[in-house]
Amino acid sequence: MADIQTREAARPNELSHSPHGALPAAGRAKKRAGRGGLAIAGEKLIELLIRLCGISAIIFVFGIFFFVFREAAPLFFEKPKAPTQEQAAMVERHADDHRPAHKVFSLKEFLFSKEWYPTSQSNVRFGVLALIVGTLSVTVLAMLMAVPFGLGAAVFVSEFCGGKLKETLKIVIELLAAIPSVVWGFIGLTVMNPIIQNLFNAPIGLNMLNGAILLALMSVPIMVSIGEDALKAVPDSFREAGIALGATKWQLVYRVLIPAAKNGLLAAVLLGVGRAVGETMAVLMATGHAVNIPFIKADGSFNPWFTFEPVRTLTATIAAELGEASEGSQHYRVLFLIGVLLFSITAVVNLTADMAIRGIKRK
Amino acid sequence: MISETAPLFVETPFVRKKQRREVLAKCIFGLMAAAMVVPLLLIIGYLVYQGAPLISWDFLTTNPAGGMRRGGIWSALLGTIWLVGVSLLIAAPIGILAAVYLNEYAKDNWFNRVINLAVINLAGVPSIVHALFGLGAFVLFAGIGRSVLAASLTLAIMTLPVIIASTREALASVPRSFREACWNVGATRWQTIRAIVLPNSISGILTGVILQVSRAAGETAPIMFTGAVFFRNIGEGNLFAYNLKEQCMALSMHLYTVTTQVTGAPKPLPYAIAVVLLATVLLVNATAIVLRVILRSRKKW
Question: Fewer CB within 10 A of the terminal residue: chain B, N end or C end?
Answer without folding.
Answer: N
